C-alpha cells in the first residue's frame, strides 16, 4: 500500500504505525522530485527504508509532509514529464517485489492524484452517500477519460469498482444512494459497506476490522467486514478476467 492521500497518515494510524513514521528518512514524496535518481544512487536501501511492515500482512509506504511541496513543484515540470514519475517508481522498484499495489490517493485533482491515476491500471471508488461524492465520481470519470485519450502515453486506467461506504441502513438517503449506484453502474457496482463504530474505535488502537475477534464486533462491524471481503473477492475476480 502506498499512502498519497495527505499528511494525516491515516493508513499509518490505522495500522498502528503513526509513531514510527513521523520522521522517516526515506519519504515517498522524494519520488516526485528531480533528485530522485541521485537519491537512489547515493542512499543505501532507500526504497526498503520507505516500506514498513504491518501486523496484519500488507506492507505500507506512508504519506509524508513533503507531498504538498511535491505537488507544487510538479506544476513547474513540463507536462510530458510530470505525470509518469509514480508509475516509473512502481514499475521499477515496487512491482517486482509485490503481486498487488494499492494506492490511496487524495480526493482532489492535484498533480499527485493524477500521477496515481496514470500509474493505476484499475481504480476503485468508495463513496459516502451524498451529492458531493457523486460529483467527485463524475470528476474522476472525466479525468480517467482524459488520461486514456492522451496520445502522449499509453496509460489506460479503468474504473473497476464503485461502492457506497459508511452506509447508515436506517436512512432512506443511504439506501437510495446505494441503489442509484447499482442502477447507473450495473457492471462495476459492489456491495455497500455499513457504517460501524468498530472502524473508528479500532483506528485509535492501530487495528482494522480484520484484526478484531468475532466476539468484539458489533453487528454493523460484522456486516462491514463481510462486505469488504465480498468486495475484495469481487475485485480480484474482475482483475483475473482481464
UniProtKB/TrEMBL annotation:
Residues covered by the AAA domain: 40-150
Gene3D superfamilies named among the record's database cross-references: P-loop containing nucleotide triphosphate hydrolases
Cited InterPro entries: AAA_dom, DNA_Partitioning_ATPase, P-loop_NTPase
Name of the molecule in the record: Chromosome partitioning protein ParA
Taxonomic source organism: Natrinema versiforme JCM 10478
Amino acid at each position: 500500500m502506498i499512502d498519497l492521500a495527505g499528511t494525516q497518515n491515516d493508513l499509518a494510524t490505522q495500522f498502528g504505525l503513526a509513531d514510527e513514521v513521523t520522521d522517516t528518512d526515506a519519504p515517498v514524496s522524494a519520488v516526485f522530485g528531480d533528485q530522485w535518481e541521485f537519491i537512489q544512487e547515493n542512499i543505501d536501501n532507500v526504497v526498503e527504508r520507505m516500506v514498513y511492515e504491518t501486523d496484519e500482512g500488507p506492507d505500507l509506504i506512508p504519506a509524508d509532509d513533503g507531498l504538498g511541496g511535491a505537488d507544487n513543484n510538479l506544476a513547474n515540470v513540463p507536462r510530458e514529464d510530470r505525470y509518469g514519475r509514480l508509475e516509473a517508481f512502481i514499475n521499477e522498484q515496487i512491482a517486482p517485489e509485490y503481486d498487488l499495489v494499492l494506492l490511496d490517493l487524495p480526493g482532489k485533482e492535484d498533480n499527485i492524484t493524477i500521477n496515481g491515476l496514470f500509474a493505476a491500471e484499475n481504480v476503485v471508488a468508495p463513496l459516502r452517500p451524498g451529492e458531493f461524492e457523486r460529483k467527485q465520481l463524475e470528476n474522476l470519470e472525466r479525468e480517467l477519460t482524459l488520461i486514456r485519450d492522451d496520445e502522449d502515453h499509453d496509460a489506460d486506467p479503468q474504473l473497476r469498482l464503485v461502492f457506497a461506504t459508511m452506509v447508515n441502513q436506517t436512512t432512506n438517503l443511504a439506501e437510495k444512494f446505494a441503489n442509484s449506484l447499482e442502477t447507473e453502474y450495473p457492471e462495476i457496482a459492489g456491495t455497500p459497506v455499513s457504517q460501524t463504530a468498530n472502524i473508528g474505535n479500532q483506528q485509535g488502537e492501530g487495528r482494522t476490522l480484520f484484526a478484531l475477534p468475532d466476539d468484539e464486533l458489533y453487528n454493523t462491524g460484522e456486516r462491514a467486514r463481510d462486505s469488504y471481503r465480498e468486495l475484495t473477492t469481487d475485485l480480484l475476480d474482475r482483475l483475473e478476467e482481464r
